[in-house]
C-alpha cells in the first residue's frame, strides 16, 4: 500500500510517499481503508520529536513509527476474528496508534465507531482527537447549563469543538482568539469573542470554567479569572522544548488540593464510545466539524506546514 513515511525526527520536508507492507489486523482489530486522515498538533510533536519528553515513548534516537496519523475515517476492509461490532463495508472513524497517513490502517475496535451519517469522510476525520479532547475536558469540568465557559484558543482544532459542545450543554461561551478569526469563532456559536492582542481575558471577568488550549498565562492569572469554585481544564501543550507541559501540570496538581477551585490537567484518551457520542452530536446538528483545508496524500508535508503556519481555522485533513 502507499503511505507517507519518515525515518528520523524533523520537519515535514522529511516526509515522502512510499510503498510499504499493508497492516494485518490482530484478532481485536478493524482494518480500515482510509479515505481521510487529519493532521493534528500531536502528530507534529511525534514528527519533530519535540518536546523531547515524547522520545521516551516514541524512540530515543530514531522514531519507532515510520507512519504517523491518528484521526482516520474510512470503510472497514477486514475484521479480526474477535471483532463483534463492525462488518466489512461499514463507514467508520477512529483513533489509531499512528499509521493513518496511509491507504490502510489497523485499529482496535474499542477505538472505532460508526461515523456520523450526515458528514463526509473528510469532515469525520476532523473529529477523533480534537472532538474527544473537547468532550472529555468538558466532562471533567462538569459543565452545567447557564455556566460561563471561557475557551482560550477557540479558533483551533480542539477549540472549535469545545465552543460548540459547551453551547450544546447550555453554557454561555467566550472564545479567545486572534482578531482575524473572531468572526469564525462567533459563527460556530461563541456568545462573546476576545481578541488576545487587544485584551487580557484574565484581567476583567470571572468564569465558571476556563478551558486552556494555549498555556500563555501563568496559573495564578488563570485562577484570578475563575469563580471561587470554578474549574480550570489544562489541555495545552506549551512549555519548553524538553519537558513541554509537564512543569505546568505538576504545578497545578500540587496547588489544586489546597484551593477551592479545581485545577484539572487533561490527558485525553482514545475511546470508541466517545466517538459514538460525538457522532450523535454531529447528526443532531449541534456540532459541525470545521475543516480548514484538504490536501491529497502525496502533499501531507504541505498539510503539516499549513498546520504549523498558525493560519488554520479548525482542522487540516489529508484525503487518501
Ligand atoms: N490534553 C490533551 O490530551 C490534548 C489533546 C489534543 C490537543 N492538546 C493540546 O491542545 C492545544 C491546542 O490544540 P489544537 O489542535 O486546538 O491546536 P491548533 O489547531 O494549532 O490551535 C491552537 C489555537 O491557539 C490559538 N492561539 C495562539 N496564540 C493564542 C493566544 N495568545 N491566545 C489565545 N489563543 C491563541 C490559535 O488561535 P489564532 O490562530 O486565532 O491565533 C489557534 O487557533 C495544543 O497545545 C495541543 O497539544 C491536548
TrEMBL record:
UniProt xrefs under InterPro entries: ADH-like_N, ER, GroES-like_sf, NAD(P)-bd_dom_sf, Quin_OxRdtase/zeta-crystal_CS, YIM1/Zinc_Alcohol_DH_Fams
**SUPFAM superfamilies per UniProt:** GroES-like (SSF50129), NAD(P)-binding Rossmann-fold domains (SSF51735)
Q: Name one GO molecular function term.
A: oxidoreductase activity
Where the record annotates domain Enoyl reductase (ER), the positions are: 10-318
**Which PROSITE patterns has this protein been placed in?**
QOR_ZETA_CRYSTAL
User: Which superkingdom does the taxonomy of this entry point to?
Assistant: Bacteria
Membrane-crossing ranges are none
PANTHER family from the UniProt entry: ALCOHOL DEHYDROGENASE RELATED, ZINC-BINDING OXIDOREDUCTASE
Q: What is this protein called?
A: NAD(P)-dependent alcohol dehydrogenase
Species whose genome carries this gene: Agromyces albus
Amino acid at each position: 500500500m502507499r503511505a507517507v513515511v519518515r525515518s528520523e525526527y524533523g520537519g515535514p520536508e522529511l516526509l515522502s510517499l512510499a510503498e510499504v507492507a499493508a497492516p494485518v489486523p490482530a484478532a481485536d482489530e478493524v482494518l480500515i481503508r482510509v479515505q481521510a486522515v487529519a493532521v493534528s498538533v500531536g502528530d507534529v510533536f511525534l514528527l519533530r520529536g519535540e518536546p523531547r519528553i515524547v522520545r521516551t515513548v516514541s524512540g530515543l534516537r530514531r522514531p519507532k513509527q515510520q507512519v504517523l496519523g491518528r484521526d482516520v475515517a474510512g470503510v472497514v476492509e477486514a475484521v479480526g476474528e474477535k471483532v463483534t461490532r463492525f462488518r466489512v463495508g461499514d463507514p467508520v472513524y477512529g483513533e489509531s496508534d499512528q499509521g493513518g497517513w496511509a491507504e490502510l490502517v489497523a485499529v482496535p475496535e474499542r477505538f472505532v465507531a460508526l461515523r456520523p451519517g450526515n458528514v463526509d469522510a473528510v469532515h469525520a476525520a476532523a473529529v477523533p482527537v480534537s472532538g474527544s479532547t473537547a468532550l472529555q475536558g468538558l466532562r471533567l469540568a462538569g459543565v452545567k447549563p447557564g455556566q460561563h465557559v471561557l475557551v482560550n484558543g477557540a479558533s483551533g482544532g480542539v477549540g472549535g469543538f469545545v465552543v460548540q459542545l459547551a453551547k450544546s450543554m447550555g453554557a454561555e461561551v467566550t472564545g479567545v482568539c486572534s482578531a482575524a478569526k473572531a468572526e469564525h469563532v462567533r459563527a460556530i456559536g461563541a456568545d462573546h469573542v476576545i481578541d488576545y492582542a487587544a485584551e487580557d481575558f484574565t484581567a476583567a471577568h470571572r468564569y465558571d470554567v476556563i478551558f486552556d488550549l494555549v498555556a500563555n498565562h501563568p496559573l495564578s492569572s488563570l485562577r484570578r479569572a475563575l469563580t471561587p469554585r470554578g474549574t480550570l481544564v489544562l489541555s495545552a501543550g506549551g512549555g519548553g522544548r524538553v519537558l513541554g507541559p509537564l512543569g505546568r501540570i505538576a504545578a497545578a496538581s500540587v496547588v489544586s488540593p489546597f484551593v477551592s477551585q479545581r485545577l484539572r490537567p487533561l490527558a485525553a484518551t482514545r475511546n470508541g464510545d466517545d466517538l459514538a457520542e460525538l457522532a450523535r452530536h454531529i447528526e443532531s446538528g449541534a456540532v459541525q466539524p470545521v475543516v480548514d483545508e484538504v490536501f491529497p496524500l502525496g502533499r501531507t508535508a504541505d498539510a503539516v506546514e499549513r498546520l504549523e503556519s498558525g493560519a488554520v481555522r479548525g482542522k487540516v485533513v489529508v484525503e487518501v
